[in-house]
Design a protein that fits this description.
By secondary structure, the protein is of the alpha+beta class. The protein has helices at about 5-15, 30-35, 60-70, 75-85, 165-175, 190-195, 205-215, 290-310, 340-350, 370-380, 385, 445, 460-470, 475-480, 485-500; strands spanning about 20-25, 40-45, 55, 90-95, 100-105, 125-130, 130-135, 140-145, 150-155, 155-160, 180-185, 220-225, 230, 235-245, 250, 265-270, 270-280, 285, 315-320, 330-335, 355-360, 385-395, 410-420, 505, 510-515. It starts with 5 loop residues before the first helix and ends in an 11-residue tail after the last strand.
Length: about 525
């Protein structure tokens, strides 16, 4: 169970040496560069011009993400997410008053009082990046997600819902009714709540149930004052607002995206903020792009891929949702293969979310070593047989390789590479180079002066023939069995036996007696 609040997590970061507290006055403009260069998360205690602390970079690394989730490995976290999806714990309204004692509403709402930084050099405006947005649809119920809000006026923001998602659908349905869509935006919440909100649950199920399943306890909710929506009760700051029914008609951007690239200018709806709720001495959380976004997304994708492989009946070993693929688009999967399962694994994994490319390898390949993965592709793939391409699949519009499609959502092509050993080829073609006695040699001993004692090789030929008479064996195995003899004595004895026509090789290249029935013969 991990049932802690946002400030409890900040305390754990500090205890783990993963928070750098800057107590001096600091210009908020410096925050993104500071987080990018710092070995830990950053807390500005005196951002110039603002009366609240600012934290950023809280889950910018794998280590901090796992610390937030209370897991030792991504595999453990992925398994916990899978269990939480199967057994969600519904969010509940808390008893008693919410901790946000400060309420600002109406004409007093001023978003410029919040320390919202400019994230990247070409951003169109300061942008709220760490808000859990909650909305309700009359038919489908509550939905939670993490969406950015670009600050435009004292009480007006944009909201980025270009990508097809549940909130976009809710807003389209509200527009069709000629209505605004009320929302709440919870800022400064635990990363587990953000991770849950970032998962794309089926319509009609709440993402906060996933967060509750991960916590082992319900996410606490509290009621808004300007709508019938709830917000996350532990939030440091809450914005109560509404998506105006103007549609995707207002310019927004540019913005530094999870792709590690600057996004283009695009069009989005506007949000009017009607009230702001705050804890006393609130802490503003500015999610740092792109890596915090990446690490909040990677665990749910890992879990979704694992679940798809399990449903397909594929026995898998490891999954790497790669950073090179921005933790959204690429994955490498190792499987314990049976005939045909390379392709089955590809088909299962390519169905997950917005994945664009999946490489499937055997379980002797390290999915976290790009050289090992490339080696598998180089030595086990024939493109016309092992590359699968699926056209016109669901896309993420932020993909910069897509052609612009004004007025409609683009589609993408997905690619799968089956880099497993092909069925029907001799296994010995794929045996890795290994070195004799590698598991028993201590190189440092030889560096420190150890020497081997020379011994006679008079009986080497007889010893070799006695060994190969028992069973064929590789040259390295012969050297191991005769390790008491000098290397040269063995090689010269093998050469003499070859010259005498007494030694031969079997079909696997092992040494054997020339008169053995296993000896390889020239094909007729």
């Amino acid at each position: 169970m991990l049932n802690e609040g946002f400030r409890d997590f900040l305390a754990r970061l500090r205890a783990a040496g993963q928070m750098a507290d800057l107590g001096q006055p600091v210009n908020l403009m410096h925050l993104p560069a500071l987080v990018d260069q710092a070995p830990a998360a950053i807390c500005l205690h005196q951002p110039i011009g603002y009366d609240m602390q600012v934290v950023s970079g809280l889950v910018r690394t794998r280590e901090r993400m796992l610390l937030a989730a209370g897991s030792e490995t991504m595999a453990d976290l992925g398994a916990r997410i899978g269990a939480a999806i199967e057994r969600p714990i519904a969010a509940q309204m808390i008893a008693g008053p919410a901790p946000q004692e400060i309420v600002i509403s109406g004409d007093d709402v001023d978003l410029f009082n919040l320390p919202v930084p400019l994230s990247a050099i070409h951003d169109g405006a300061p942008t709220i990046t760490a808000g859990v947005v909650i909305a309700r649809d009359p038919e489908y119920g509550l939905n939670a997600g993490v969406y950015r809000l670009m600050v435009k006026q004292r009480n007006i923001t944009g909201i980025d819902i270009v990508t097809p998602n549940n909130l976009r659908r809710y807003n389209e349905r509200a527009m069709a009714r000629g209505e605004s869509l009320p929302i709440s935006v919870s800022l400064g919440v635990h990363p587990i709540d953000m991770l849950g909100a970032g998962y794309r649950s089926p319509l009609g199920s709440s993402e906060l149930g996933l967060a509750g399943g991960l916590r082992g306890a319900p996410v606490g909710l509290a009621p808004c004052g300007t709508s019938d929506l709830p917000y996350i009760a532990d939030a440091e700051i809450v914005l109560e607002g509404e998506i105006l029914p103007s549609g995707w008609t207002h310019p927004e951007g540019r913005f530094g995206e999870f792709t590690r690239l600057m996004g283009a200018l695009h069009w989005n709806p506007l949000v009017r903020i009607n009230a702001i709720r705050m804890k006393p001495k609130p802490i503003f959380y500015a999610l740092h792009m792109p890596w915090e976004n990446v690490w909040l997304g990677a665990p749910t994708r890992y879990s979704a891929i694992a679940r798809s492989l399990d449903v397909a009946g594929v026995a898998w070993k490891d999954i790497n949702v790669t950073l090179g693929g921005c933790a959204f688009w690429h994955a490498v999967i190792s499987i314990r293969k049976q005939a045909g399962e390379g392709k089955n694994a590809l088909l299962a994994a390519l169905s997950v979310m917005d994945l664009k490319q999946v490489t499937v390898v055997d379980d002797d390949i390290d999915v976290f070593d790009p050289v090992d993965v490339e080696f598998a592709v180089a030595t086990r793939v024939q493109a016309d047989r092992d590359v699968v391409i699926v056209s016109n699949a669901r896309a993420k519009p932020l993909d910069p390789s897509l052609m612009p499609t004004p007025g409609r959502v683009p589609t993408t092509a997905k690619m799968g590479i089956d880099a497993t050993i092909p069925e029907g080829l001799p296994h010995e073609r794929f045996e890795r180079i290994a070195y004799p006695r590698a598991d028993s040699i201590d190189v440092q001993g030889y560096i420190d002066g150890k020497s081997d004692t020379p011994t006679t090789a008079e009986d080497a030929r007889a010893a070799i023939m006695a060994i190969v008479t028992q069973a064929p064996l590789y040259y390295s195995a012969l050297l191991e069995k005769l390790s008491h003899l000098p290397f040269r004595a063995i090689t010269e004895a093998v050469g003499a036996l070859n010259l005498a026509g007494e030694l031969w090789q079997d079909q696997q290249g092992r040494l054997c007696r020339a008169d053995s029935p296993l000896a390889a013969r020239v094909p007729q």
